[in-house]
Specification:
Chain B: Its main location: mitochondrion. The complex is a heterodimer of chains A (about 170) and B (about 400). With about 170 residues, chain A is α+β, with helices and mostly antiparallel strands. Chain A has seven helices and nine strands, in the order H-H-H-E-E-E-H-E-E-E-E-E-H-H-E-H. The longest helix of chain A has 13 residues. Chain A starts with a helix and ends with a helix. With about 400 residues, chain B is α+β, with helices and mostly antiparallel strands. In chain B, strands 10-11-12-9-3-13 form a six-stranded mixed beta sheet, sandwiched between helices. Chain B has a six-stranded antiparallel β-barrel with strand order 14-17-16-15-18-19. Classes of the chains: A alpha+beta (about 170), B alpha+beta (about 400). Chains A and B meet through helix 4, strand 4, strand 6 and strand 7 of A and helix 1, helix 3 and helix 8 of B.
């Protein structure tokens, strides 16, 4: 079940923008790696601004979607929030910079930042090469009483992308 | 709903690329956007098309802005710049006509010689930057910005009417051909096999009417906006795809198509101004550090629009001046405020900036009070409430590579 969900997921992400050959490669890669992150995928929630969050035991990990990194192009600088920062939902929590533009990141939920991805300081392009795994941006202790009802699961995000791509 | 990352990106892109030109330069609906005759070619090459100055243009191709940028510096890249305004000026009074609009000594141009110049207004502000070439076929060949096309045409038309009313002989015609910029050190290798003349005889800022890969009626001008050796080729629209295909399939060097994204970062590294960002109707050539454009002969005659103000500024220094900055860390971009090193005095504003793909530092340019315009002056630039250390740096950031035989 997990594997088929992933296949579907990867196809959605690569619809329309990427030529057929890389579509196939990407989906094969995803299948190969399916076991290692199937659990994460099942729990990943998205915002309409293309950030994702995975919440486990009250701790949230935040990143941007594959669609977002494709749209932004090569990331050359990542600004993450300082550890200890308290964020409200929708607060600007960071910034991703390509040669062309600076794009703000909005926190999907509120909470206190506990860790940032220090690898991104020297390897900002991890956000492009691995937006859902190694390119995560920051972690936070999710604020008590946080409601994730506004966020989209894979299926809903996929449908959402279809409404904005053409 | 379309805000956040993507919305921001588009918005930013919009401001950054489309500059501050009035909204009537743009079509509000996608279907009103114009397409160049190479549109299908771009799409087939995997271009991401965006609205730009009323046109649907490639902002980047599959390989992305950084690779495209570096490819132009190392090999050769081709830009579709067919959206730019090409104008032909005929008539025996054509030079006098052009001199009434720009700061260039047009009468002084040798046959087939061209120059960068600016249209100025009565206050000395810059209406647009443009290239004027004195073709040996007896007309002036003028290329100006797509974003200013309507404004430039209206400006020239009004002057044409004035001249004609006074019995002068001048006639404007819009040239509706494709325009390709072929830029980079390998340009010669890929283009020479398709030419009926020797590129060694075509020096920087000269032009020639030529046959290009079998296409008659082309014009090749040794110029560009990347800082690299290169040419712009005006090609009859029905031959554009063939000429482009011939260049792309050259066995002599790898050729890539390059989008507007890399065009912007390349020109920035080369220290060249983007109209609407770095120069506009409120900045004079002197403030813009383009005093060299004001020809000696014209200074003596003081007969160009805004002459009095411009000449006064040349004599007694302007209050602000365009300079370059280098910095590290958070990229500096247009509209960032510039402060003195102690952070106390607001001294200017950045007009454009980006992370430099060639240098791996951040490069930007902007206007500062003249007292701070000296190279190596240390300043602070404010980005998202942080003060970034920056140095005033000589332009261009990347040495230019024009074909100027000594």
């Amino acid at each position: 079940m997990a594997a088929s969900a992933i296949r579907k997921f990867s196809l959605t992400l690569f619809t329309s923008k990427v030529p057929f050959s890389s579509k196939v490669i990407a989906s094969f890669q995803c299948q190969k790696r399916a076991f290692s992150f199937s659990k994460c995928l099942a729990d990943r929630l998205y915002t309409d601004k293309h950030e994702w969050i995975v919440i486990e035991n009250g701790k949230g990990t935040i990143g941007i979607s594959n669609y977002a990194q494709e749209q932004l192009g090569e990331i050359v600088y990542v600004e993450t929030p300082a550890v200890g920062t308290t964020l409200n939902p929708q607060d600007v929590s960071g910034c991703l910079e390509s040669v062309k533009a600076a794009s703000e990141v909005y926190s999907p939920v509120g909470g206190t930042v506990t860790e940032v991805n220090s690898k991104l300081a020297s390897e900002p392009a991890l956000v492009n090469s691995s937006p859902l795994l190694e390119g995560w941006l920051y972690k936070l202790d999710v604020a008590p009483g946080t409601n994730t009802k506004e966020l989209m699961n894979e299926e809903a995000y996929k449908a959402f992308l279809e409404t904005i791509v053409h | 709903m379309m805000v956040g990352i993507i919305g921001k990106y588009r918005q930013f892109c919009f401001h950054h690329l489309y500059k501050t030109i009035k909204s009537n330069w743009f079509s509000s609906k996608a279907e009103e956007l114009k397409r160049t005759c190479l549109y299908d070619f771009h799409v087939a090459e995997g271009a991401k098309m965006v609205p730009f100055a009323g046109w649907e243009m490639p902002v980047q191709y599959k390989s992305g802005i950084i690779k495209e940028h570096l490819h132009v510096r190392k090999e050769v890249g081709i830009f579709d710049v067919s959206h730019m305004l090409q104008t032909r000026v005929d008539g025996k009074d054509r030079k006098k006509f052009m001199e009434s609009l720009v700061v260039l000594d047009v009468e002084d141009l040798k046959p087939n010689q061209g120059s960068l110049t600016v249209f100025t207004n009565e206050k000395g502000g810059i209406i647009d930057d443009l290239i004027v070439s004195n073709t040996s076929e007896g007309y002036l060949y003028v290329v100006s910005n797509a974003g200013c096309a309507d404004k430039d045409m209206a400006h020239m038309k009004a002057k044409e009417a004035e001249f004609q009313k006074n019995g002068s002989d001048v006639k404007l015609t819009t040239i509706k051909t494709a325009l390709l910029a072929v830029q980079g050190p390998s340009m010669k290798k890929v283009l020479q096999p398709g030419l009926d003349f020797d590129l060694n005889s075509l020096h920087f800022m000269t032009t020639i009417s030529a046959k290009v890969f079998g296409a008659e009626g082309c014009r090749v001008t040794r110029c560009g906006y990347t800082g690299e050796d290169g040419v712009e080729i005006s090609i009859p629209s029905n031959c554009a795809v063939d000429v482009l295909s011939s260049l792309m399939s050259s066995p002599k060097a790898p050729v890539q198509l390059i989008g507007l994204g890399a065009r912007d970062s390349l020109r920035l590294e080369a220290g060249l101004c983007l109209y609407g960002n770095d120069i506009d109707e409120t900045t004079t050539p002197v403030e813009a550090n383009l005093t060299w454009l004001v020809s000696k002969g014209r200074r003596a005659k003081a007969d160009f629009p805004g002459g009095e103000i411009i000449l006064q500024q040349i004599k007694s220094k302007p209050t602000k001046r365009r300079v370059g900055f280098t910095s590290t860390g958070i990229p500096v971009r247009g509209h960032a405020k510039i402060y003195s090193q102690d952070g106390k005095e607001l001294i200017g504003e950045v007009t454009s900036g980006c992370p430099s793909p060639s240098l791996n530092i951040n490069v930007s340019m902007g206007y500062v009070k003249t007292a701070y315009a000296k190279n190596a002056t240390k300043v602070k630039i404010e980005v998202r409430q942080k003060m970034i250390d920056a140095d005033v740096t000589k332009l261009p950031f990347v040495p230019s590579n024009y074909f100027i035989p000594s």
